Amino acid sequence: MVSFDFKLAFRVVRKSLFAGKDTDGRLTRKRLSAMMIHFPFYIVNQAINGFCLLLDEIIFPDYHDMAVTEPVFIVGFPRSGTTYIHRLMATDEQFTTIRLWEILFAPSISQKKIFQALGRLDRRLGDPVSSRIRNWEQKKLNNVYHAIGLFEPEEDEAILMHIFSSFFLIFMFPFYEELRPLARFDLELSEKDRLRIMRFYKRCIQRHLAVFGKGGKKFLSKNPAFSTRVQSLRSTFPDAHVICMVRNPLESIPSEISQRSFFVENFYSPASPYSVREYVMDMAGDYYRYPLSQLPKWPESQQAIVAYPVLVKDPEKTLRSLYHRFGFAISKPFQNELEKNQQKASGYQSRHEYSPEKVGLEQKRILSEFRDIFEQFAFDRETDGRS
């Protein structure tokens, strides 16, 4: 694939083999084991996906003409309610969103159609395969941070793994200095690379809509990583709507450090406890400030900034306000969904509790470095650590 970043792949693989000493990327037994499992799988999976993507150009070339009309992108620093609002909106039938199975194993139209056919066959047989998958997910993938499932809506930032251009590569190749341009996208990545990545991403959306967008459905996406590419989104999708979630940094930053530390344990042995802390702090500054500086320049009907406490206090009212602002209709089935969710939200309490000190951060550091965010949103400068 022309879109594949071979140069970046060469650099991080070379660094893993010869220059990872004294870094999180050092070749410990755990990292060697993870690389021997994950990297061959990645190569084989990409070979299959690459072939199928090329096959689309022969069998389904008309997908290039698929219009991406008024897509909705949810951004914001992780652990700020992006998943909550994404999965709630995904229940609205006027939207279609990418699910994990599609991201990992079916980026092409031909693969989507094959998996659809297999899904229909499974349902006719009484769901023997899908039920086993869900049971396995409940046992192996259930955690206090983020519910993961092949059939769940997920961040389609991961689809850029297919061209080695996703910041998610940090889990396999923990070299932040190499991947930092992907984290800062509009701010640091070259125009050539921005266009290359956004062109591939748009084609992935067009492929999705060609299969799942019948009836004029709008595309819905949730990606914290897109916080630093809101201008690239607008250049690629001029009529896009962007929702930016904002949460108290005293809650979101420790929670994200904790979550990333939990997940990296599957890939390598960190050089020190919470070694991801500094790069998360670096990312946080951009993920908070860049969308807040850019979105107010957009028409009000195309952007909205939502504080997390407002969403969880009254999700029904928040969604109604957003739909009115964007000119979206609320169907009766979605109204029922909002009412059911409102009842659940009233008794919601997070299972995940972390204070800055528990992840090796001083509270005063967050208060100092994000003083402007606390002032703009009047966030509480004390926290109970619940996130």
Give a structural overview.
The chain is mainly alpha-helical and 387 residues long. It has a single domain (6-377), classed as P-loop containing nucleotide triphosphate hydrolases (Rossmann fold, 3-Layer(aba) Sandwich). Helix content is 53%, strand content 6%. The protein has helices at residues 6-18, 29-59, 82-89, 100-105, 109-124, 128-140, 176-184, 191-212, 230-236, 249-264, 277-294, 308-313, 315-326, 332-345, 363-369, 371-377, and strands at residues 72-75, 95-97, 218-222, 241-246, 303-307. The chain has a five-stranded parallel sheet, sandwiched between helices. It is globular and about 50 Å long. It starts with 5 loop residues before the first helix and ends in a 10-residue tail after the last helix.
Low-confidence stretches: none
Biggest beta sheet attributes: 5 strands, parallel
Indicate the percent of residues in helices.
Answer: 40-55%
CATH arch. level architecture: 3-Layer(aba) Sandwich
Average of per-residue pLDDT values: 90
Roughly how many Å is the radius of gyration? 21 Å
Number of helices: 16
Number of domains: 1
Strand neighbour order, sheet with most strands = 2-3-1-4-5
**The CATH fourth-level homologous superfamily:** P-loop containing nucleotide triphosphate hydrolases
Distance from first to last alpha carbon: 41 Å
Compressed to H and E, one letter per element, the order equals: HHEHEHHHHHEHEHHEHHHHH
Structural class, from helix and strand content?
A: mainly alpha
CATH class: Alpha Beta
How many DSSP E strands?
A: 5
Overall outline: globular
